[in-house]
Amino acid sequence: MAKRTPGLEKVVSIIPKAIHELGPKQEREYYQHWVLWHWADIVGEVYARNVKALRICRQTLYVYCRDSVWGSETRFRMPQIIQQVNNYAGTKMIKDIKLSQPWDEQDEEGDVKAPEDEKKTAPPEKPEIHVGRERAKMPLTPAELSAAKKLSRGIEDEDLALKIRELYRKNRQMNKLKAAKGWHPCAVCGSLCPPETEICHRCESQRQEKIREQIRTVLRDIPWARYKEVKEYVPECTPRLLNEQRAALVQLQASKVAVNDRQSMEAKTLVMLYRCLPPEHLTEDAINRALYELRFNMYWPPDFKTPKRYEVIPLRHAKKRQYGKKNQENQQDDSQGG
User: Fold this and answer.
1) 29 and 97 fall within a common domain
2) What is the rounded CA–CA span in Å between residue 36 and residue 53?
3) Using CA atoms, how far apart are residues 57 and 60, in angstroms rounded to an integer?
4) What percent of the chain has pLDDT over 70?
5) Model confidence at 116, in pLDDT bands (50, 70, 90)?
6) pTM of the full predicted structure?
7) Per-residue b/e over 263-291, b at no fewer than 16 CB within 10 Å?
8) Would you say 85 and 61 are in contact if contact means Cβ atoms under 8 Å apart?
9) Domain check: are 78 and 141 in the same one?
């Protein structure tokens, strides 16, 4: 067998480099399609089944919602979804989200077609299965029946003893019914689990909790880490889990920062965690803007009084006026000095 040549790069690292060499336009289009392909990973399976991402155009994400309920949910979660998409893409890809019609109701130019009266065929109904009747058909061996009697031996209350024997028999019959349906022992704890899964629900929940704890550990050490960086330390990480844990840590960190705090390490850590900004990109303006937006979106302290926006973030033309005044003063000083 031929030996592998050392130093070869993986396809995962070669493709982004090749796309980058094509130019900024092709790279931007590639990552736009990348976001659309991984829409379910970004927002979750349940939300992706009801809200479909159609296209990204001019920093606007167009989505189609199944009904008005999911449309309201999209409007409510719009800032969070924008942040999730930008974090996944690694850049500020979108600024707004608009509701649109599905592609099958649009023409080639994107205009909505006239609705057509088409009869919707109802999905075929699945036959109803009565689990209790199926379970009652499962026979029990004499050894299992005697084991049920041993469990209730010594109990003075006859009704309680009868309930115990009945529960034991039902449990044994249910296990036999599951085994007949293809259920198999869990790879971790040995309890029966469905054939489409390897481990049971309890073990899967414990595994997911361990992954969440690992993600929180990485975010505590590297608050500005994005999905690609976190995945290097936690291979099982998904965008949905990362966004959930980031939001939880932001909420916790925001409760520790005072209202007017802008200089402490806790405040800077909160901004790095909320904006995914590395320390070298932290500026006074970025801190003010992030904390101002955070107070309105996620956490309001009990003693918080709503400030005026331009007391925190000055107007651009106000900055120009101040700059112009300083130039005039400097010119006057120069003229007097001359």
Assistant:
1) yes
2) 6
3) 5
4) 72
5) very low
6) 0.50
7) eeeebbbbbbbbbbbeeeebeeeebeebb
8) yes
9) no
